[in-house]
Amino acid sequence: MAAAELNDNKKTRLVLILVISLVCGMLILGFLISSLIKKRELKRAFDIDVKDIELPMFDLTTVTNATENFSLTNMLGEGGFGIVYKGTLTSGQEIAVKRLSKNSGQGLQEFRCEVNLIAKLQHRNLVRLLGCCLEGDERMLIYEYMPNKSLDHFIFDQHRKTLITWRKHFEIVMGISRGLLYLHQDSTLRIIHRDLKSSNILLDNNLNPKISDFGLARIFGGDQTESKTKRVVGTHGYMSPEYVVDGKFSVKSDVFSFGVLLLEIVSGRKNWKFHHSDHHHNLVGHAWKLWNEGRALEVANDIAELLLVESEVLRCIQVALLCVQKLPQDRPTMASVVVMLSNESVTLPQPKEPGFFVERSCDETDTLPFEETCLTQNGVTISVLEAR
Ligand SMILES: *[C@@H]1O[C@H](CO)[C@@H](O)[C@H](O)[C@H]1NC(C)=O
Ligand SMILES: *[C@@H]1O[C@H](CO)[C@@H](O)[C@H](O)[C@H]1NC(C)=O
Ligand SMILES: *[C@@H]1O[C@H](CO)[C@@H](O)[C@H](O)[C@H]1NC(C)=O
Ligand SMILES: *[C@@H]1O[C@H](CO)[C@@H](O)[C@H](O)[C@H]1NC(C)=O
């Protein structure tokens, strides 16, 4: 009797162990298969896109040697999806290498977007992609090297901003607006950049501006003029109200960012982080306030020589205010912006109230209608926010 019970007990335990190990085995197998499929899918999606384009391929050894084994002394900066290094090819040509950090799914998507987009674009005010490097799990983009870094190094630096004349400032503004016009309507595609900001404007030997970083850009087909996303990605201070609140983006959201950038160039101050002893507005609000008081020129009072070119400076401020108007349909297109900036005899409309014209309750708080936290701080890289 006792022996039979013991036997039964043994049997059930054996069955239990068998069942458990079977289930575990199946789970592990399922997991392995699904991750394998995922990996292959990622790889396939990537391969197809790269096959479509004619882009020179760089060997890993060439890039490794050029960047001295990706040494930290050659690091130029850290972007949205990886580190950027400076390199020198054996020919003496200088390059900038953007290396995608491994296991970055989001980064891979941005990388693909950048490869697909920028390879098809050519304009003197867009940064030029020389090629890419895809070996093993390495994903790298190789650009022409920009010796004068990005615009934010100049305009926000007390000393360096005095090195460039107002004429050069104005040429930089014109260059950016022509580059953006090309993206919006002059290339064969209609492209929304979505992350236009001072640190994404690179400067070449002669301080010609080049728009860079197309990782967040979107292509519009045919008659499409607007799109919507649930994943609002961009940089604080540059995003338009309809994009932040509803996730809607269009050429007019880029125009908003351009307007902010233009005010930053004229004033030498950052929109996000702007402080004034008289009020709690950001730079846009500050400019709007001065405009209504007939003191718009004071927006630019940091640049001494500006009094000589008063009309040009005022024109820039007025165009900037037109670009940052609250309603997208009130904002001009980049084609009008280029005309308004370059032709002194064109009469400009009166700007209406800008977007985000709300006074901050306290200096350090967020003006945006968000409860969510952002991943990174003010402008250095990218803030990811979910639209409500
Ligand atoms: C590596 O770089 C050095 C200079 O830094 C150069 O002399 C050498 O030829 C390069 N080697 C290869 C394989 O490119
Ligand atoms: C790069 O690393 C390899 C092997 O790790 C080494 O042989 C080579 O000397 C290094 N080159 C430089 C320029 O540091
Ligand atoms: C821009 O870069 C060139 C080449 O490196 C340099 O000669 C020039 O001084 C730089 N301009 C400024 C304003 O720093
Ligand atoms: C500038 O604008 C005026 C008035 O709209 C126009 O008559 C003139 O042709 C424009 N000049 C240029 C160079 O486009």
UniProtKB/TrEMBL annotation:
Gene source species: Fraxinus pennsylvanica
Keyword annotations: ATP-binding, Disulfide bond, Glycoprotein, Kinase, Membrane, Nucleotide-binding, Serine/threonine-protein kinase, Signal, Transferase, Transmembrane, Transmembrane helix
Catalytic activity, as annotated: L-threonyl-[protein] + ATP = O-phospho-L-threonyl-[protein] + ADP + H(+); L-seryl-[protein] + ATP = O-phospho-L-seryl-[protein] + ADP + H(+)
Lineage, highest ranks first: Eukaryota, Viridiplantae, Streptophyta, Embryophyta, Tracheophyta
Listed InterPro entries: Kinase-like_dom_sf, Prot_kinase_dom, Protein_kinase_ATP_BS, S-locus_recpt_kinase_C, Ser/Thr_kinase_AS
Occurrences of domain Protein kinase (ranges): 70-346
Residues at which ATP binds: K98
The protein's Enzyme Commission number: 2.7.11.1
Pfam family, one: DUF3403
UniProt similarity note: Belongs to the protein kinase superfamily.
Superkingdom, natural source: Eukaryota
PROSITE patterns: PROTEIN_KINASE_ATP, PROTEIN_KINASE_DOM, PROTEIN_KINASE_ST
Gene Ontology MF terms: ATP binding; protein serine/threonine kinase activity
Listed name of the protein: non-specific serine/threonine protein kinase
Record GO cellular component, one term: plasma membrane
Record-annotated membrane-spanning stretches: 14-37
Record CDD domains: STKc_IRAK
SMART domains named in the record: S_TKc
